[in-house]
Design brief:
Length: 358
């Protein structure tokens, strides 16, 4: 089969980590008899520099001509929050999610066996294992609600950000979570703030209705503040965690931290039709850009998620994941995950090692 993949290399370490993912994809293509062709898509701070806006006209349309999108990272201090919206890389990312209808963001957080020592939690907690899938709603809520900024008579400027959710939006992300749980350990924890927010009360009622349709899946409600606490107290209790956009943004950073390296975690953003978007959860790390220091594993594992969720190539996905584990088991480390004082390899070498194991 031939698959066409859009590459958004982006800013900072983005281009370097995408290169290594492409190296691994090409190895997968050779081994399994697929051909991957790539289409470069300009987006992010680099697009602002080149054409004056972070989300050039036609970006989504170009991505839609492809079967999937692989993104390195966008952002950097050069295009900060003092810049107009159309120049900021984050604006582009949010617009792409919306324009491609990517309402489901899957962020797996698992402790890789070779890196159990990197877990910052107590040993007895780490030994119970971490293998959870954060399912974050990605195109609704406060990220996309109406915003306001106005003068008041006596309190200076006041701003508002509206958080809105419809039954339709909650139901479709909920179904994704229950379906995923069926392929895993059959547990769903739905995270909300139903003791305060009306959107959360609707969220909870829709989830309860879905839970009845999936009686084989064990369901629980967890308040978001309690979830933040449980993630560090005993993350082994979680299988699939489903939540709204902003809670998911915050909790997925926490979930990534407890696995030891943000440089290892991939993500998938999918909707009801192609293309899905695959990206590491880390940012553009401008401080180490261009120095061959970045860990390409999160992007390589994002390519594995692409195989699984967009192309339904389970063996190819497993081949990538097993190659990563094998290289880590041999002791190879990039600087971010190396023991203090230990010898580390660079971005390219790590990519070559993983590609060679395919
Ligand atoms: C993420 C990021 C983005 C988000 C930013 C860069 C807009 O933090 O993907 O988690 O908040 O969704
Ligand atoms: Mg985030």
């Amino acid at each position: 089969m031939n698959y066409k993949i859009a590459l958004i290399r982006g800013d900072g370490i983005g281009p370097e980590v995408v290169n290594e993912a492409v190296r691994v994809l090409d190895a997968v293509g050779r081994k399994f008899g697929h051909s991957f062709t790539y289409v470069d898509v300009l987006m992010g701070g680099c697009a602002t520099d080149a054409v004056g806006k972070s989300y050039p006209d036609g970006t989504a349309e170009l991505c839609k001509t492809c079967d999937a999108v692989l993104l390195g990272a966008v952002g950097g201090p050069k295009w900060g929050s003092d810049k107009p919206a159309e120049q900021r890389p984050e604006t582009a990312l949010l617009a792409l999610r919306k324009d491609l209808g990517l309402y489901a963001n899957l962020r797996p957080a698992a402790l890789r066996p070779a890196l159990a020592d990197a877990c910052p939690l107590k040993r007895e907690t780490a030994e119970r294992g971490i293998d959870l899938m954060m399912v974050r709603e990605l195109t609704g809520g406060i990220y996309f609600g109406k915003r306001g900024r106005y003068e008041t008579e006596d309190r200076g400027v006041e701003c508002t950000d509206l958080m809105a959710y419809s039954e339709m939006e909650i139901e479709r992300i909920g179904r994704r979570a229950f379906e995923l749980a069926r392929l895993r350990r059959k547990k769903v924890a739905s995270v909300d703030k139903a003791n305060v927010l009306e959107t959360s009360r609707l969220w909870r009622s829709v989830m309860h209705r879905l839970a009845q349709e999936y009686p084989d899946v064990e369901y629980s409600d967890v308040l978001v503040d309690n979830c933040a606490m449980q993630l560090v107290r005993d993350p082994s209790q979680f299988d699939v965690v489903v939540t709204e956009n902003m809670f998911g943004d915050i909790l997925s950073d926490e979930a990534s931290m407890i696995t030891g390296s943000i440089g290892l975690l991939p993500s998938a953003s999918i909707g009801d039709s192609a293309p899905g978007l695959y990206e590491p959860i880390h940012g553009s790390a401008p401080d180490i850009a261009g120095q061959d220091k970045a860990n390409p594993i999160a992007t390589i594992l994002s390519a594995a998620m692409m195989m699984r969720y967009s192309f339904h190539l389970a063996d190819e996905a497993a081949a990538i994941e097993n190659a990563v584990d094998a290289v880590l088991a041999e002791g190879w480390r990039t600087p971010d995950i190396a023991e203090p004082g230990a010898q580390a390899v660079g971005t390219q070498k790590m990519g070559e090692l993983i590609a060679a194991k395919i």
